[in-house]
Amino acid sequence: MLQVCDVLCPDKKNNFQTVSLSRKMVTSRIEAIDKNLTSQLESKIGQFKFCSIAMDESTGINDTAQLVLFIRGVDENFEITEELACMRSLKGTTKGCDIFREFQEGLLT
């Protein structure tokens, strides 16, 4: 990373050297980003006049079924927003009741 910095922005190299990459710091930053993005999405959802939820379930190369939930909404200015709400792993079966349970848990968490 520092070698790339030498080429792209040598005047900022000191800033990159002072960034803490400890496990605790990275975890803390990821949690802060998650809270911020969740807050932004909740704010947008509060402005929707109409909304819909789309789901897609597929199985990856490791035979684990994945469920993704998208939220699409329209505000009073007819601006359309579509965001990924969550992605959940489906363990065991992928019956309708399993998908519905993960759907509920995904929107509540």
Characterise the protein shown here.
This protein has one domain (1-108). It has four helices and three strands, in the order αααβββα. The protein has helices spanning 2-8, 13-17, 23-46, 96-108, and strands at 48-59, 65-75, 80-90. The chain has a three-stranded antiparallel beta sheet with strand order 1-2-3. The longest helix is centred in the first third of the chain and has 24 residues, at 23-46. The model has no long low-confidence stretch (mean pLDDT 86).
Classify the secondary structure makeup into a structural class.
alpha+beta
How many domains make up the coordinates?
Answer: 1
What order do the SSEs take from the amino end to the carboxyl end, as H and E?
Answer: HHHEEEH
What is the percentage of strand-forming residues?
Answer: 25-35%
Protein name: General transcription factor II-I repeat domain-containing protein 2A
Organism: Araneus ventricosus
